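In response to reviewer comment 3 from the previous cycle, which asked for concrete evidence that the modeling workflow produces usable outputs, we include below a single protein chain processed end to end. The sequence was submitted unchanged, and the resulting structure tokens are shown without manual editing.
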Amino acid sequence: MIEIARPPEPAALALVRGEKLAAARDAVARGIEVDFNGYDIVKEELFAMQHRKCCYCEKLEEQAKYRDVEHYRPKARYWWLAWTWENLLFACMDCNREQKRDRFPLSPGDTLLLAEQAPPGAERPLLLDPSDPSVDPTHEIEFRRERVLGRERWVPRGVTARGRKTIDVCGLDRPNLLDLYADHVLHQVRTKLEGFFAARTAGDTQAVFQAWERAKRGLLARERPFRALSHDALNVLVPAEHRAHHRLILERPRP
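The workflow returned the following structure tokens.
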């Protein structure tokens, strides 16, 4: 998971919110089910905002049409935020429907928002919001290399309580993702480092720098999947002392 830069709200959502929120208030007052349609009018904008990737697992999606608009604060509990731009994200079906669903853990002792109260109030969510500019998920979740039955695995581990809870809620260590992570490092990260290691063995300082920069561009560009994993794999496969020797810089992925 990496930080997501959120652009201004699309005008179309504001128009939908005006209509739908009035109807939702009436439904709540009457004790009937709220009609939550309409928020997916910004699905394509969210898809573009996240460079076609799930907000949680960073898996690349081919198209937005059959994927989900995710509510960071679940609409079942926070009905008045169902059409709020800052509460909407784009997510794959596995992270949203199979894992997170309506879960939204808070810190012990937190007071829930009252109806129509603006977040965060007294809430301290334990689920990371990748679009929160005050949060850098790469400081709270890191990928660590492990060996399982002789195979190299890259497993997300929570550095903070929020990181650990986010992994649990979103299933960021589910088996199919662990397979994708391992495949990504093997076929993407390691492949793009082949030129770097060849240049380092040959002792060609200029070629080392050029190969390193090419690898970073190929792995950490905004549109690339699993950027957080790529960063942490680069950090492990090219240790800090080797980078220092060649004066190489490894920047954290930015939105």
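The chain has a mean pLDDT of 96. We consider this sufficient to address the reviewer's concern, and the full set will be provided in the supplementary archive.
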